[in-house]
Write a structure and sequence with these properties.
about 950 residues, alpha+beta, 22 helices, about 30% helix, elongated
Length: about 950
């Protein structure tokens, strides 16, 4: 049950300051640090807020988005979260626990047994979905999201409870009476006593089954010791037909019977085998379908066997039978064809054959895990899991614990065997913590606590060398942002073992290198490592160990800008290359969306510690470009429609439904689209300053000050914003971000009166005063069209108008070539070279090609980068016809001239052209006559100011 409203209010007021989407979600159940706890939190910092943070975020419900570029994208995700059948997400969890899946079908892709790597990552999407719902609830207050959270948490609680106990029968209607179902993904089988064959020289094996999946080699029964000595009856052989085989010398020595047609799925079939006097016959639904008169082996020839299983194979790669058993019988004689046919329509006990005299199971049980033998021999059977059961009562996953166990002995990655189990655990843990913070549901907190207790019980027993090896393994050893989530739980629990658990994930080689400023990122998987550093920041918060924070800061500088694409993304084919490798890494698999999500989290967390404007400049870049552009502008009830990769190769078309729509990037994409408001405003820890980091239409409620701040803007289509302060009189510094790209003209007025600058680009403009009800602040941020050059090839460039990356829409797959100086303004703004598209803000044309904001989630082929070419010297639309010379480093004469912009007048420009030309002539880069022609062209031209 959810905790009482008062308790919930305390939790949310204390914790949600940090728990906003994707950030630190810092939970705060304890009022003060527990005895023995690390110094990261305490009364002096406020409940649950790390004392190391010099800034504080606001709660998500304190910042309301108003109509703008974010609200339409958010609404699409809110509608998806409101309508998607969450029982589909729960299907894989319920199946793993052997519970009814309620007819739900798993989403597929990475969330299902038929997906990539056999679904070894299943369960991760459920965690993302819980976080998305939590953010949707705190951001909108709508009850529907809280109801969905509680439904999911309740189901996960039932799953964990089932996993804590021996498996129990899942009773379903049978052909006659009831039947026992093994849901696909439950890894359950029935274990018969070792005396069931009784050394019989003649035998009948019969089973009434309803298979629900068409996987080959799923066993109806398999009696044997290993893969050498056994007999089995499978529902489907390699051709999809029933097969019986018996051998004492492995697969090569099998004596077999093969059917001729598949057993239908979802229907009852009766399958039987008789062996007597050297003849074996296979029956399906009462009809003989195969006969072998040269069968020299009988159960007696096998001797006493170790295992007698229903639904499980001795070949470990074979899947467990998925479907239901209605009746299984074993007779110490070969039944006649008529008796077999009679079993088709009658229970054995009511037929002339009678119940099996060796063993007979009718599966009438509706509880427990034991199936009674009605043969009179008391050979009762037991329902078991192939993997036994969890090592700790806190275990919760959508698959067996075997992935975690196997990882401990791996030396290299293989995601078809083990695929990042601690990564998936992180997503589930994060989702549960967010669910608890959003709704106060104590069950979610208990589940999260149990997961961490279980992980500690596993990992604390391993040698440090084993842990270091595990965490260094590509893919299989990936653990995402689990350290951050564990630290957030520690902020609630105060349990020392939770902090100890977080430190067990230290990857010393990476931490030490980054702390020392040693760039070792080349060749590393990007998203496997970025979230490690959000965890390190939180570890610093809790331990004050400097190497954690230093490593995170240095790491950020290794990515931005040296491995950053213009849109803010990083990685190519999921990996990092060398520093500065941009143009040569452009492909259709650049900029994995998860990387941007995690770099935003890291930038935000670092900004809480040190107010470097570059962190928020990056935040704006990645948010307004890659993150917005990764979400398709289209409704869909079944998929979130978010990119995995964003290809930056010329002519790339974005794919918004990669791998059936359940990848990591769609998970983080769901989260991003429901937390757009989380970094618009921050406040100084002592309440003396309000930071406006993003110009986004929104309303902030600052309860401690008794004020609201309403920001009205069409940004980024509008070049500025208006903030109106209402409420009580309050004194604080209003700190307005001056973007690094806003190189001239940034202005601030309060109640119509200019505020004295100057303001430095890449900083914050501070307005200190006592604010009164109705005070109005206007910010003017003039945009310029500018280019950013690829670090490894200055001729490859990307175009920006203010914060907006403009991409060319064109189906050609070679670099487009453009010149931009032809109508450059005296300010240095290149925008006059482009032609605005009427009625379409931020759309322009150049040389017949349309440019549009990257943020628009369309399926148009785009060119994020183009090749710059300025072959001749052109001023104000006047082409001099003189070749534009270049230095050895690629800098052209026009580059050198316009680098000095802005110019206060045409005369100032001409004067600089003359001095630049003189220098180039003196250097032998330009002829004297051509130099005079360049100056003449500059004089002749007319310019936009």
């Amino acid at each position: 049950m959810a905790s009482a409203p008062a308790r919930r209010a305390v939790l949310r007021a204390a914790a949600l300051v940090a728990a906003a989407p994707a950030l630190t979600s810092l939970a705060t159940g304890r009022a003060a640090a527990a005895p023995g706890a690390a110094p990261g939190t305490g009364a002096g910092a406020g409940p649950g807020v790390p004392a190391a943070w010099t800034l504080r975020p606001f709660r998500p419900e304190d910042v309301a988005l108003r109509t703008g570029v974010f609200t339409a994208k958010r609404q699409l995700m809110l509608d998806y979260g409101r309508g998607y059948d969450v029982d589909r997400l729960l299907q894989v969890f319920r199946a793993n626990a052997g519970l009814s899946t309620r007819g739900a079908v798993a989403p597929g892709g990475w969330e299902g047994l038929d997906g990539e790597a056999k679904g070894n990552l299943r369960g991760h999407f459920t965690g993302h979905f819980l976080t998305m719902l939590s953010q949707a609830h705190t951001g909108t207050g709508e009850k529907v999201y809280a109801d969905r959270i509680r439904h999911m948490v309740g189901a996960l609680d039932e799953v964990r409870e089932a996993l804590r106990h021996d498996p129990a029968v899942l009773s379903v209607p049978g052909r006659f009476g009831t039947a026992a179902e093994n849901v696909r993904g439950s890894y359950r089988y029935v274990d018969l006593p070792d005396t069931v064959l009784g050394g019989a020289a003649a035998i009948t094996l019969a089973a009434r089954v309803k298979p629900t999946h068409d996987a080959a080699w799923t066993r109806i029964l398999d009696f044997g010791d290993d893969t050498t000595r056994y007999l089995y009856l499978t529902a489907r052989n390699g051709q999809g037909h029933p097969r019986f085989a018996i051998t004492t010398s492995g697969a090569g020595g099998e004596q077999s019977l093969d059917g001729t047609a598949p057993l239908p799925l979802g229907e009852w079939s009766h399958v039987a085998v008789t062996i007597a006097d050297g003849t074996g016959i296979l029956y399906v639904n009462g009809a003989a379908v195969a006969k072998n008169t040269a069968m020299t082996l009988t159960p007696a020839a096998l001797g006493t066997l170790r295992d007698h299983w229903l639904g499980r194979s001795h070949y470990s790669a074979d899947p467990v039978f998925a479907g239901a058993f209605d009746e299984v019988g074993l007779w110490s004689r070969a039944l006649t064809a008529n008796q077999i046919a009679e079993l088709q329509d009658h229970p054995a006990a009511e037929s002339s054959a009678g119940a099996g005299d060796l063993a007979a199971y009718t599966f009438e049980e509706t509880t427990g895990g034991t199936f009674a033998d009605s043969s009179g021999h008391d050979r009762h059977a037991t329902l078991r899991r192939t993997w036994g059961g969890p090592s700790h009562p806190g275990f919760l996953a959508a698959y067996p614990e075997t992935q975690f166990i196997t990882l401990e002995s791996m030396t290299s990655g293989d995601y078809t065997v083990v695929w990042a189990p601690y990564y998936t655990a992180h997503k589930i843990l994060r989702g549960l913590l967010d669910a608890h913070l959003a709704t106060g549901d104590a069950r979610a907190l208990d589940l999260a606590t149990g997961m961490c207790d279980w992980m500690y019980s596993r990992l604390s027993k391993l040698p440090r060398s084993t842990l270091q090896r595990m965490w260094g393994i590509f893919s299989s050893g990936e653990f995402g942002g689990i350290v951050e989530a564990i630290c957030d739980l520690y902020a609630i629990s105060g349990k020392p073992q939770h902090l100890a658990l977080a430190r067990l994930f230290d990857l010393d080689k990476l931490i030490d290198a980054c702390a020392a400023g040693d760039d070792i990122l080349d060749g590393l998987h990007a998203n496997q490592h970025i979230p490690i550093f959000t965890g390190l920041v939180r570890l610093y918060d809790e331990t004050r160990e400097e190497r954690y924070l230093t490593a995170a800061k240095n790491f950020w500088d290794m990515v931005v800008p040296t491995r950053m694409y213009g849109i803010g993304g990083t990685s190519n084919r999921e990996f990092w290359g060398a520093r500065g490798a941009i143009a040569k890494t452009l492909s259709d698999t650049t900029a994995e969306t998860c990387c941007a999500y995690n770099m935003l989290k890291l930038s935000r967390m670092l900004f809480f510690h040190e107010q470097k404007p570059s962190y928020m400049d990056y935040y704006e870049r990645a948010l307004y470009n890659q993150v917005l552009g990764s979400k398709q502008d289209k409704a869909d009830a079944e998929k979130p429609l978010v990119t995995y990769f964003i290809g930056l190769v010329p002519g790339h078309v974005r794919d918004y439904t990669p791998k059936a729509g359940t990848t990591c990037c769609e998970g983080t994409g769901m989260e991003s689209a429901t937390k757009y408001q989380d970094s618009v405003y921050f406040r100084r820890a002592d309440g003396t300053a309000l930071y406006v980091n993003l110009y986004s239409p929104s309303t902030l409620t600052w309860a401690e000050k008794g004020i609201t701040v309403t920001q009205s803007t069409g940004y980024p289509a509008q070049q500025g914003s208006t903030l109106v302060i209402r409420g009580r009189t309050a004194r604080f510094d209003l700190r307005l971000r001056v973007p690094a790209w806003a190189t001239s003209g940034f202005r601030v007025t309060v109640n119509g009166k200019p505020v004295k600058g100057p303001w430095s680009p890449g900083g914050y403009a501070s307005v200190s005063r006592t604010w009164r009800d109705g005070d109005t602040v206007r910010v003017l941020i003039p945009f310029r069209l500018r280019v950013e050059k690829a670090l490894d090839d200055p001729g490859v460039q990307t175009l920006f108008h203010g914060p907006v990356n403009l991409v060319a829409r064109d189906a050609r797959t070679d670099f487009l070539t453009f010149g931009l100086y032809r109508n450059a303004a005296l300010s240095g703004d290149l925008l006059p070279t482009l032609t605005p598209v009427p009625g379409k803000p931020l759309h322009y044309t150049l040389d017949g090609v349309e440019f549009a904001p990257f943020s628009e989630g369309t399926e148009e082929p785009t060119h994020a980068y183009f090749r710059r070419s300025e072959p001749t010297v052109v001023f104000g639309g006047h082409d001099s016809g003189i070749a534009n010379p270049a230095r050895d480093d690629g800098t052209t004469l026009l580059d050198a001239i316009w680098a000095a912009a802005p110019y206060r007048s045409k005369g100032a420009l001409v004067q600089h052209v003359r001095s630049t030309v003189d220098a180039w002539v003196a250097a032998g880069l330009l002829g004297a006559a051509d130099g005079r022609g360049v100056v003449a062209a500059a004089k002749k031209a007319d310019y936009v100011s």
